[in-house]
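Following up on my earlier thread - several people asked me to post the actual chain instead of describing it. Fair enough. Here it is, all 50 residues.
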Amino acid sequence: MGDHVHVRLSQGLSVSEQGQLIEHSRCRCGATWTKVFDADGEDPDRPGPS
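Reply from S.P.:
Thanks for posting it. Predicted structure:
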């Protein structure tokens, strides 16, 4: 039998009270991950200065 390789399966997204995007993932073996993306405070519908 070979080594186990984790495959991250998306379990969804959420937003923290501070406005951070949180990505939830898991592997079939039961391992879980949480990745947090900080908001930069910019309006996503308006491009920044060029």
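Strands lie at 9-15, 21-26, 32-37. That should answer part of your original question.
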